[in-house]
Amino acid sequence: MTSIDSGISGSAVTNALILPNIIYPVIEQLDKSGYKDIQSELRRNFYQLEEYYPGFSHQFLQSFIHKQMPSSTTNMNELTLKLEKYCDKSSYCISSSRSEPEFHELNIRSKNLKRILSRIPDDINEKREFLETIKEIASAIKKTLDSVTNTYQYFKTSDGRQALENEKKEFIKYSKNFSNTLKAYFRDNKRDDVYIAANHLLVQTDYLLRTIKLYCETDALDECLYPLISQQQQNSNRIIPTSRYSSNNSRQSSSSSSGNNRPISSYEINYT
């Protein structure tokens, strides 16, 4: 797939968050104006446009902002991160159909992690406050990982457990990247790198929740909920969960599949 504009500024991960953090919340407000009947179709259309033309949402938003405020400059890396705390992402969480306390704890801890990450643009201006925020993030990462580990017992297939293990490794990788980026920030003061690293953690947290929902809930996933971002399958051992495994029968029949043989969903293949 070809990007609609190869010169678009901002990172791929930030492009991936524009739909869930900016566009979708606006669409959700349409029911207050009497347009509730077109919300689902509008979300799906935006998702498909982004799928076929990676970067479309970014360019669409930038064009709109430029038209309304020609002299303004918007840092999308900062904006997508900052808006996370205002987004209602309850649909990303494990549903109430799973009453086990481990899932409830995971919902709370993952939401808290994303909320603290979204404070970075406000806290980064004051060093003492920012250092406290960093400590909170480190603690929230550990608690989220512990909660993820506690859900392993509810995975019925080895395929599902392996998928979660692989997503967990990716989460740990980006957590370490975030830590290294912070160390570099105190040397070079490049805030944008911090915003991008934090956005990666937001997406990886959603990846973890998505995998758990896929294997532990009976309802089919709404693929349009989740950010699109590239993953080079040939450079990864991850098992890629896809929406066609959302039924119980499909999960069982897929348990013998290997990571390299499973098809990649549209959720995984964009922004290469």
From TrEMBL:
Biological processes, Gene Ontology terms: regulation of Golgi organization
Locations listed in the record: Cell membrane; Cytoplasm
Topology in membrane: Peripheral membrane protein
Example of a GO MF term: protein kinase binding
Domain Programmed cell death protein 10 dimerisation: 13-68
Biased composition (Low complexity): 237-266
GO cellular component terms given for this protein: cytoplasm; FAR/SIN/STRIPAK complex; plasma membrane
Sequence similarity: Belongs to the PDCD10 family.
Domain of life assignment: Eukaryota
Keyword list, A-Z: Cell membrane, Cytoplasm, Membrane
Protein name: Programmed cell death protein 10 dimerisation domain-containing protein
Region (Disordered): 237-272
InterPro entries, per database record: PDCD10, PDCD10_Homolog, PDCD10_N
